[in-house]
Amino acid sequence: MNHDGADGEPEQLLTGGNVTAVSRRGDAVLRASGPWTPSVHAVLVHAREAGLTWVPQPLGIAPDGREVLEFIDGTVPAYPMPEWVWAESVLVSAAKALRAWHDATAGYLPPDAVWRLPSHSPVEVVCHNDFAQYNLVFDVEHGEPRFVGAIDFDTMSPGPRIWDLAYLAYRLVPYLGDADRGQPGSSERSARLRLLLHAYGTEHTQAEMLECMADRLVELAEFTEENAAASGRTDLLDHAALYREDAARIRADASRD
């Protein structure tokens, strides 16, 4: 889908968005803004100044009110995931990138900040809140997949490091109940989770990760149900049901460990 922007640059609707429509115009990405957008942009600027040039640079607000961000060139995987997503190098690079984001945002909060999602205690960092492979950009054209950036920071909010790390583990170890093509099986989960924790550099135990993962999924189910009610998208209810099922299974697994 293409249409011309005010500057004559063709605009293309990007695929992969689950809730918010995202378009590209030249080297910029446009998406709906909200009361949280100034806070999100402030954190992105802070992270870039701290050396994280792989986060998108905020480029302001378009005349139609949408936020404008730098486009990051590369491949963003989507479900069903390509098999290269499950490579150990992807798991390790994603964990290291999340650690770098957390280190860059530790101790920083914009003045009078407004967030789209609730904050969580203890506040240690600004959580991305959806740091998973479908929001990560990779170079897959030059040998082994290489992490080059992250996107979709609009749901960030303050919280503990484990809140983000547990969700990355859910998606990338993974702990999803529905199997994807080439997805590592349950027999590989413990080893892959240990690798993720080591790459990030945390002393949290696997049991702590699983408990946090379950809590994270219950909250995500509630958020998804609210989105379904507001948008009329009944398909989102299937996502919410899956999150609740996975949360119950993961919590049961944690109690057995």
What do you see in this structure?
The protein is built from six helices and ten strands, in the order E-E-E-E-H-E-E-H-E-E-E-E-H-H-H-H. The protein has 257 residues and is of the alpha+beta class. It folds into two domains: 69 residues, Phosphorylase Kinase, domain 1 (2-Layer Sandwich), CATH 3.30.200; 174 residues, Transferase(Phosphotransferase), domain 1. The strands form three sheets. The chain has a six-stranded antiparallel sheet with strand order 1-2-3-4-6-5, with helices on one face. The chain has a two-stranded antiparallel sheet with strand order 7-10. Helix 5 runs antiparallel to helix 6. It is globular and about 55 Å long. The N terminus is likely disordered.
Strand tally is 10
If classified by CATH, what would the architecture of the largest domain be? Orthogonal Bundle
Poorly predicted regions are 1-6
Q: What is the overall shape? A: globular
Number of helices: 6
Question: Which H/E pattern describes the elements?
Answer: EEEEHEEHEEEEHHHH
Taking the sheet with the most strands, its summary is:
6 strands, antiparallel
The SS-based structural class is alpha+beta
Strands side by side in the biggest sheet: 1-2-3-4-6-5
Helix percentage: 40-55%
Tally of domains? 2
CATH class of the largest domain: Mainly Alpha
The CATH homologous superfamily of the largest domain is named Transferase(Phosphotransferase) domain 1
Question: Kindly, what is the distance between the CA atoms of the first and last residues, rounded to a whole number of angstroms?
Answer: 50 Å
- Average pLDDT figure: 92
CATH topology of the largest domain: Transferase(Phosphotransferase), domain 1
Radius of gyration over C-alpha positions, nearest whole angstrom: 18 Å
Protein name: Aminoglycoside phosphotransferase family protein
GO molecular function: transferase activity
Domain Aminoglycoside phosphotransferase: 117-172
Keywords: Transferase
